């Protein structure tokens, strides 16, 4: 049984913030790690992959064409 479950003193987690994160917290913003975690919870893998494809130079169609050309005959 843990100390907090037994009614004992509860331990607090101490985190050393980087200077950038300390400035963010002072402004009332989330730390970089917390912001990234919130972003990841709000977006699914497919949406993220589509966004990356749109940002990529040359677009995703060049890769799709290459992959279609490499399809084995028994898959067609």
From TrEMBL:
It comes from the Bacteria. Residues 25-76 are annotated as: Disordered. Residues 37-56, 65-76 have a biased composition (Basic and acidic residues). This is Transcriptional regulator.
């Amino acid at each position: 049984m843990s100390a907090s479950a037994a009614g004992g003193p509860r331990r607090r987690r101490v985190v050393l913030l980087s200077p950038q994160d300390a400035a963010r917290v002072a402004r009332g913003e989330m730390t970089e790690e917390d912001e990234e975690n919130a972003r990841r919870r709000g977006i699914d893998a497919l949406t993220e992959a589509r966004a990356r494809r749109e940002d990529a130079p040359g677009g995703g169609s060049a890769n799709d064409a290459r992959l279609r050309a490499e399809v084995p005959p028994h898959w067609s």
